[in-house]
């Protein structure tokens, strides 16, 4: 069993990753204290810096549907084979964890218009957080990056379109751990390191420590 533990390190962890965040609705994030304006930077300038396009840019980018499950399963298993720690996906597990469900998870595919083949996949799940003692806001909504595979476009372009969809879905923040290939995304898309760390533990198995880049398993969920 892999059990990620947020912020708490006990015994010897398998690996440690860090969460990074990117404001989608900048004004709200500043108002609730999740983000702040750097010195000599106005709120207007920060909003302009964080502005995203209104529409996606990748041809064939669309919401994942049931008939995409088989191809997404193959795409995930092929990509995750390069990591030291990852899931072996079945069509049943892909359908259970990744098919879009309102206020739970959103997933998208890129379909080649010529071949009708799924070439890329991206996803996030919803993490609402209560805002206490604020006169205007009661909840802030985080889109947590889940699994992303880019084969026909650069990964930053794929995740940018994912963030466009997240913002359109009223997500306020986009968060991602620095695992898998996400280092390619964090700086170019304006993410900032947060204070949260995730520690991975593998119980009842012997396994050497590994770098976060060799982790192909999302750290927000415990997996049997």
UniProtKB/TrEMBL annotation:
Top-tier EC class: transferase
Entry GO terms, CC: cytoplasm
EC number(s) recorded for this UniProt protein: 2.3.1.97
Domain Glycylpeptide N-tetradecanoyltransferase C-terminal positions: 31-211
Catalytic reaction annotation: N-terminal glycyl-[protein] + tetradecanoyl-CoA = N-tetradecanoylglycyl-[protein] + CoA + H(+)
Transferase listed as a keyword: yes
Pfam families the record matches: NMT_C
UniProt keyword terms in alphabetical order: Acyltransferase, Transferase
Single GO MF descriptor: glycylpeptide N-tetradecanoyltransferase activity
InterPro entries: Acyl_CoA_acyltransferase (IPR016181), NMT (IPR000903), NMT_C (IPR022677)
Domain of life, per lineage: Eukaryota
UniProt family annotation: Belongs to the NMT family.
Task of the protein: Adds a myristoyl group to the N-terminal glycine residue of certain cellular proteins.
Protein name: Glycylpeptide N-tetradecanoyltransferase
Native species: Aphanomyces astaci (Crayfish plague agent)
Upper classification of the organism: Eukaryota, Sar, Stramenopiles, Oomycota, Saprolegniomycetes
